[in-house]
Amino acid sequence: MSLIKQDDLIKSIRDALQFISYYHPKDYIQALGKAYEQEQSAAAKDAIAQILYNSRLCAEGHRPICQDTGIVVVFLEVGMEVQWDCQMTLEDMINEGVRQAYNHPDNVLRASVLADPAGTRRNTKDNTPAVIHTKLVAGNTVKVKLAAKGGGSENKAKFAALNPSANIVNWIVNSVADMGAGWCPPGIIGVGIGGTPEKAMIMAKESLLEPVNIQTLIEQSKQDKLLSRVEELRLELYEKINALGIGAQGLGGLTTVVDVKVLDYPTHAASLPVAVIPNCAATRHTHFTLDGSGAAVLTPPDLTDWPDVMWTASPQARKVNLDSLSKEDIQHWQPGEQLLLSGKLLTGRDAAHKRIVETLAKGESLPDGVDFNNRFIYYVGPVDAVKDESVGPAGPTTSTRMDQYTETMLEKTGLIGMIGKAERGAIAIESIKKHKAVYLIAVGGAAYLISKAIEKATVIAYEELGMEAIYEFEIKDMPVTVGVDVCGESVHQTGPKKWSQFIRS
Fold first, then answer.
1. Can you say whether the dihedral through the CA atoms of 401, 411, 463, 456 is positive or negative?
2. Has residue 29 been placed in a domain?
């Protein structure tokens, strides 16, 4: 029998969430380093370099890898011989750990969790509650696996109740192709097969917390070692998903996934539930065990484990002064071209766009200072600043969520460009082409690196929206790539097509 103290569990959850906010798992970062070495697409290689360099900066500076510091997911295995010294429930202890972690003064984490999701969507201010899965098992310890899962990758989750005779591989590969790049590849794909619908989804999520080891399986297959059906499935999916040519950030390249994980469970004879959940470049998870001897001790990784990749902007990158930019200037930008932006831009994401469009529909004026004429908007919800920072990590959010507002923004406000991550949908591309605007992409998973380019950040409207408020950023050499040009050509269409053909040839 072991006695687990309330404060030990709370402290362990708090410390673990702080730990994973700035330390990538060693296995993932080393797999990404190998992908960098092998990558032949210049655009994808640059994106991976930014992610790797950002990871090192975060490990050194103890600041979040991504501005989206995630929703907390916890898998617990509680030994039936465990005794508790506590006044709080198990869920309350975990949520107290989350609360303390996300409000830590030395490393504030962005609060993204909203209560009343179908109504007021009110921010809980401390990222609680966590999503908790608990098992009672034999033994006298408490095993904890936890992750902080970003919304961009969560939104790409797929589920289907397939016909038992259906081709699982085809459905999964097609599902990943349909995800686009909003989940920030290169990452990991988690698959759950069998059980019931909710069981398949939970297995897909839990599988993502296992070590990256696909290369070991590849070596075993070369040596003709006997593999299980699940292992064979992982290898087949790994090869076929990478053959899609999606590549880093959807720019086209050799590596879309560094691993594919599969868990399965017995299912009904009439059923074949299959779930797919991607894990993004901001892979964040850790495991620990409590045995009554105190709080968990997490050992920081050695920075020598990081690939020796230092990102610098290409000498060919076009320098752009946003303060003197005209609509005529952007007509010459080419898809895939790298830019370094300086000057002032405004920010805004889902909630701000909704308010802007509603205000314009009423014929009312936008708040003082919110003038988009001949300007760019950056889709971002930054982390709060600490110490001498102008702003915390400030990477892009998934742009397709703003597609529904694009026509109004381009037609009614004088906006000439947008910055976000991943592809735009057909409706947004048509508006971009119609209004001769442009769409630029920043690297998802390089939030701390991007924040280094932001010299000043001022909230100018909708302060009550928290991280979704409208800011004015003053930036210096912020790295971006032209995603969609004024003619509507999208690098997220041309890039993967080119590299898929190259891989298959």
1. positive
2. no
Same structural domain, 254 and 122: no
Residue 211 lies in a domain: yes
Residues with Cβ within 8 Å of 134's Cβ and at least 6 positions away in sequence, in order, are: 76, 78, 90
The parent domain of residue 434 ranges over 318-499
| H or E element in which residue 28 lies | helix 26-38
Q: How far is CA 381 from CA 110, 153, 234, in A?
A: 9, 16, 35
Q: Is residue 505 part of a domain?
A: no
CB 425 within 8 A of CB 182: no
Locate 62 and state its tokens. Answer: 């103890």
Residue 36 lies in a domain: no
Express each pLDDT in 194-246 by its tens digit.
Answer: 999 999 999 999 999 999 999 999 999 999 889 999 999 999 999 999 999 99
Tokens 């508790």 — which residue?
84
Write out pLDDT tens, residues 44-83: 999 999 999 999 999 999 999 999 999 999 999 999 999 9
Span between the terminal Cα atoms of the chain, in Å: 61
Tokens 């600041």 — which residue?
Answer: 63
Task: Output the six-digit token pair for 387.
Answer: 């110490």
Asked if residue 505 has pLDDT above 90, the reply is no
Q: How many domains does the chain have?
A: 3
Q: Is 408 exposed, middle or buried (0-12, 13-18, 19+ CB in 10 A)?
A: middle
Residues 237 and 101 occupy one common structural domain: no
Q: Percentage helix, strand, coil, to 5, in the chain?
A: 35, 25, 40
Q: Is 129 in the same domain as 172?
A: no
Question: What is the number of other CB atoms lying within 10 angstroms of the CB of residue 438?
Answer: 24
What are φ and ψ of residue 24, in 5° steps? -65, 150
CA distance linking residue 173 with residue 55, whole number of Å: 29
Q: How far apart are CA 274 and CA 233, in angstroms?
A: 13
